[in-house]
Amino acid sequence: MRGVTTPSPERVDLSALIKAYDVRGVVPEQLDARVARAIGAAFADVVVLPEADGRARVVVGNDMRPSGPELVAAFADGLTARGVDVETIGLASTDGLYFASGSLGVPGAMFTASHNPAEYNGIKLCRAGARPVGQDSGLARIRELAGDYLAQGVPEVAAGERGTVGTREMLAPYAQFLRSLVDLGGIRPLKVVVDAGNGMGGYTAPAVLGTEAGLPALPLEVVPLYFELDGTFPNHEANPLEPENLRDLQRAVVEHGADLGLAFDGDADRCFVVDERGEPVSPSAITALVGLREAGRELAAGRTPTVIHNLITSQVVPDLLRAAGATTVRTRVGHSFIKAEMAEHGAVFGGEHSAHYYFREFFFADTGMLAALHVLAALGGQPHPLSALADQYQPYVASGEINSRVEDVAAARARVVDAYVTRQGAGPVEVDELDGLTVSHWDGHPQWWFNLRASNTEPLLRLNVEAADEDIMEKVRDDVLALVRQGEGS
After folding, report:
1. Is a pLDDT exceeding 80 seen at residue 10?
2. What is the rounded (10 degree) CA torsion for 90, 91, 94, 100?
3. Catalytic residue among 114, 284, 354, 399
4. Do 314 and 398 meet the contact criterion of CB atoms below 8 Å apart?
5. What is the predicted pLDDT for the residue at 3?
6. Is 302 exposed, middle or buried (0-12, 13-18, 19+ CB in 10 A)?
7. CA distance 460 to 382
8. How far, in whole angstroms, is CA 384 from its chain's centroid?
9. What is the separation of C-alpha 284 from the centre of its chain, rounded to a whole number of angstroms?
10. Domain covering 21-167 in this structure, CATH number
11. Which pTM was predicted?
């Protein structure tokens, strides 16, 4: 790799900024133009140049955060200093950037902090074809090298070898590509409220669901909520995973008599759904619904489908998909694990409890908008309301993720292991440690399972419980929390 320096005692420590999956921090305290330039140069040396076949290129986009354009310019300068050409696509959703990387066959960088508050920004990096760059696939080395470049300066190629910067329009091709994957032409008319949270859904929804990209009108009446792009998030945080951020959407769906509501996070790669009553539809239910649609298409073509789900999605996902003839693969939590399994198994679809949905036809990457199109097609292709449709995918009761801050994570976990595994206080159980501790009594009576995972960055334990009925879920939840929080202040 040209210009790669050896480890230096003066290396700047970027471990608080460059994490396991992406770059994310406070602007400008952790992430400023100088840091962005160093990361751009390191990205060039670790990922872009070694994979280049001919002239090296990178595509770069940014969300609506005010700091985005300056950081993009500095990042591009770091790339061009190492001899890489840059095509900027300007405002984009994260899945829009993945589309650009996948369709153009070049590495990409998306400047976004997703659902984080306004003072944050960050970078999601990918290899050509939207393949992920994570801790074990280049990001750790990028962190080291960028730290060296901050200490020693970015080595620059000769003036004649320097890269160029150009622009490219990708919104219309992105919208057209998504429309080509799901046919909404024959559905019954639907009214849908879309809450963009002042994030990039306000940019992509009019193009995909409407006519702003020059595509034909769909049988949809879209009621926009907070479509104005504003990285200060004046109405609510663009994080629909938190229930309070769904309340405006829930109210609007009922007030407008809409068939459903869609909520996107800040960079619009996740999509949350509420039914006609304003009630949230769980991401596990959406995983089952979309997974069955994609599996059905594979089966109709004479192929055995594989669907990926992480280990804290509902048991309904493997139950229904296996019954339909699909193979299911259970993975750790986190997009880099899901994407790796998607590619390894050639999976047609993958879903997470956090409302990330992955599609083989979308470069094995996640896209909230494509999931939304599937929900619209499923709802509009039959006469019943979404609440009735969703009920068949939500037979069990889940706690949602509950965080406990503990002084001694290992000791808290050991108490749970002692009670449930060593002493089998709840009866014989199945145990695995794929990601944290999963204890399952699903093959017995009553049916329940729980997963207890430690945070990678904080003294937190995250608990998820599911059971066949609410009383059992609450008992298991409360019993495990009592063990976790024994002697703690929370």
Report:
1. yes
2. -40
3. 114
4. yes
5. 45
6. exposed
7. 44
8. 30
9. 14
10. 3.40.120.10
11. 0.94
Residue with tokens 């060296």: 148
CA distance 234 to 142: 34
Our answer to whether residue 114 is catalytic in this structure is: yes
What is residue 455's predicted lDDT score, i.e. its pLDDT?
85
Looking at the chain, the whole-number percentage of residues with pLDDT higher than 90 is 91
Distances (CA, A) of 348 to 290, 304, 359, 361: 10, 10, 6, 7
Average pLDDT, integer, range 452-467: 91
d(CA 333, CA 338): 8
Give how far the C-alpha of residue 67 lies from the chain's centroid of Cα atoms, to the nearest Å.
Answer: 22
pLDDT at 4 over 80: no
All residues at 6 or more sequence positions from 303 whose CB lies less than 8 Å from its CB, including other chains: none
Q: How far apart are CA 303 and CA 367, in angstroms?
A: 24
Residue 439 in tokens: 């204890």
- String of DSSP letters for 65-113: -TTHHHHHHHHHHHHHHTT-EEEEEEE--HHHHHHHHHHHTS-EEEE--
CATH 3.30.310.50 in the chain: give the residue spans: 396-483
CATH number for region 396-483 = 3.30.310.50
29 φ, ψ to 5°? Answer: -60, -45
Q: What distance in Å separates the CA atoms of residue 345 and residue 339, rounded to the nearest whole number?
A: 10
Nearest to 163 by CA among 101, 76, 100: 76
CA–centroid distance for 231 within its chain = 19
User: Which regions of the chain carry the CATH code 3.40.120.10?
Assistant: 21-167, 171-277, 281-391
Comparing CA positions, the residue from 119, 117, 109, 148 lying closest to residue 22 is 109
CA-based max dimension of the chain: 72
Structure confidence at residue 334 (pLDDT):
82
Looking at CATH, the fold of the domain delimited by 171-277 is given as: Alpha-D-Glucose-1,6-Bisphosphate; Chain A, domain 3 (3.40.120)
- Rg of the chain over Cα atoms, rounded to whole angstroms, equals 23
Give the burial string for 341-366 (b: 16+ CB within 10 Å, else e).
Answer: bbbebebbbbbbbbbbbbbbbbbbbb
Render pLDDT for 214-267 as a digit per residue (tens, 0 to 9).
999 999 999 999 999 999 999 999 999 999 999 999 999 999 999 999 999 999
Q: What is the length of the chain?
A: 490
> What tens digit of pLDDT does each residue of 112-148 get?
999 899 999 999 999 999 999 988 899 999 999 999 9
- Cβ(484)–Cβ(476) under 8 Å? no
Mean pLDDT for the stretch of residues 182-205: 97
Amino acid at site 93: S
For the segment(s) 281-391, the CATH number from 1.20.58.100, 1.25.40.10, 3.40.120.10, 3.40.50.300 is 3.40.120.10
User: Which tokens belong to 201?
Assistant: 């859904």
Pairing of strands 131-132, 120-127: antiparallel
In this structure, are residues 453 and 461 in contact, taking their beta carbons and an 8 Å threshold? Answer: yes
Whether 489 shows a pLDDT value over 90: the answer reads: no
